């Protein structure tokens, strides 16, 4: 089930998302520290090719979910945190678990023209809240770029990249959602925060 908005409401949602991202980005920049101390759910990390959030301390712990995709690709989801700005940031790692270089399938970007036009990404991912019977798509900025890791096309044997995805937040009482990415099996993950 896809949520539809009028053009005016859609622009309002995009403006709200961008404003929240700018506020989080401004807060992250005002700390005076280096990039090593970025908040783990910074919305400002979505800009640029191959942008990725900083490494998280919790990534050495047991992942929330681990799903195997085509050609030896392995997706480990390490956190799903609710942000005060009204979105959820899912963090993890995409790894080539095969013995040869893998071309990352374009299907991971989904089939929406606006996202495809912005290059390879994880823009095809969704969160499903079965309790509220709603599906949430990856957020986008005002230029249609998905708020997720972008700019990768191949992974060498054994190579792993940190990934993030941002979604609208389900209601506060929803703690379990199903994470879905084309070509991968779905996985239930717990939302914190």
TrEMBL record:
Region forming the signal peptide: 1-28
Q: Where is this region: Disordered?
A: 28-67
Protein origin, superkingdom: Bacteria
Q: Report keywords, A-Z.
A: Signal
Polar residues compositional bias, start-end: 40-58
Q: What's the name of the protein?
A: Secreted protein
The organism encoding this protein is: Streptomyces bobili
- Highest lineage ranks of the organism? Bacteria, Bacillati, Actinomycetota, Actinomycetes, Kitasatosporales
């Amino acid at each position: 089930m896809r949520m539809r908005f009028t053009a005016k409401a859609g622009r309002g949602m995009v403006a709200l998302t961008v404003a929240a991202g700018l506020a989080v980005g401004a807060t992250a920049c005002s700390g005076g520290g280096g990039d090593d101390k970025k908040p783990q759910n910074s919305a400002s990390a979505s800009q640029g090719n191959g942008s990725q959030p900083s490494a998280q301390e919790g990534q050495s712990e047991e992942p929330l979910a681990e799903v195997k995709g085509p050609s030896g690709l392995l997706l480990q989801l390490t956190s799903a945190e609710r942000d005060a700005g009204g979105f959820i940031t899912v963090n993890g790692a995409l790894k080539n678990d095969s013995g040869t270089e893998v071309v990352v399938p374009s299907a991971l970007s989904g089939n929406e023209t606006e996202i495809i036009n912005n290059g390879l990404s994880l823009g095809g991912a969704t969160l499903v809240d079965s309790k509220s019977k709603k599906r949430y798509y990856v957020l986008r900025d005002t230029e249609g770029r998905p708020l997720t890791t972008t700019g990768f096309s191949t992974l060498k044997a054994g190579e792993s990249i940190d990934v993030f995805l941002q979604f609208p937040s389900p209601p506060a009482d929803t703690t379990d959602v199903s994470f879905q990415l084309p070509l991968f099996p779905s996985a239930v993950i717990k939302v914190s925060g």
